[in-house]
Amino acid sequence: MKIDFSGKRILVTGAGKGIGYDIVRYLIQECSGEVVALSRTQSDLDALRAEYECECIQVDLADVAATRGKVAAAGRIDLLVNNAGIAILESFLDTTVEAFDQTMAINVRAVLIVSQVIARGMIERGKGGAIVNVSSQSSMRALNDHTAYCASKGALDQLTRVMALELGKHGIRVNSVNPTVVMTPMGKQAWADPAKGGPMKARIPLGRFADPYHVSQTVAYLLSEHAGMINGVLLPVDGGFLTT
């Protein structure tokens, strides 16, 4: 199955590191897409642009006004990947209001803000489009020390469903991917310790964690016309974790 995004402009948030970085790589190298990479950190964008030919937007997604302005200034966007996310690891009793609000602002509110701008452009052009939100298996399973993160991903899944419901009439499909632990720097921060990661891995029938390209391939599929009748789906990329 060949996916070809030639002539398509694809905005990827959280593009500077981890899953987002690999999504950019995959969309450019494997799918011939024209990527607009968004990140909070300019040095990450500089490193990305040194490797791949892409447009770059530097903005902190916690800043609503700046986000709206810079995303609107990007011009025509045909496909959108809301990948940006943070994880602040705290137990339930120790979760602070500041950590909770910061997590929700990036993992949920920013998806709302960016998608509103992009979807309005898609509607004005009348050609439809596709949006993929990068969620997590933690939206459906509780994890120790992930109070704010689990809550944010549960909210993101419901946001995905509402977006799919309301934007479908405009020919805009919206889906999410829900990976298991992915061995990015953020994933290693939480799960590299065998004492913690071992029991989690034991719950995955395939017996391993995911690599970023597993997510990138799935994102590309959901963006493509091969998934032209898929809308409002929360697609696990979890090695069977959610079956246990």
Q: Could you explain how this protein is built, in words?
A:
The protein has 244 residues and is an alpha/beta fold. It has a single domain, classed as Rossmann fold (3-Layer(aba) Sandwich). It has a 7-stranded parallel sheet, with helices on both faces. It is globular. 42% of the residues are buried.
Q: Quick summary of this structure?
A:
The chain is built from 8 helices and 7 strands; from the N terminus they run βαβαβαβαβαβαααβ. The protein is α/β, with parallel strands linked by helices.
Number of helices: 8
Structural class: alpha/beta
Task: Give the CA-CA distance, first to last residue.
Answer: 30 Å
The residue-averaged pLDDT reads 96
Largest sheet: 7 strands, parallel
CATH H-level superfamily: NAD(P)-binding Rossmann-like Domain
What spatial order of strands do you see in the largest sheet? 3-2-1-4-5-6-7
Helix content: 40-55%
Molecular shape: globular
Which blocks of ≥5 consecutive residues have pLDDT under 50?
Answer: none
The top-level CATH class is: Alpha Beta
Number of domains: 1
Order of helices and strands: EHEHEHEHEHEHHHE
Provide the CATH architecture: 3-Layer(aba) Sandwich
Assign the CATH topology: Rossmann fold
Number of E-state strands: 7
Work out the strand percent. Answer: 15-25%
The rounded Rg comes to 17 Å
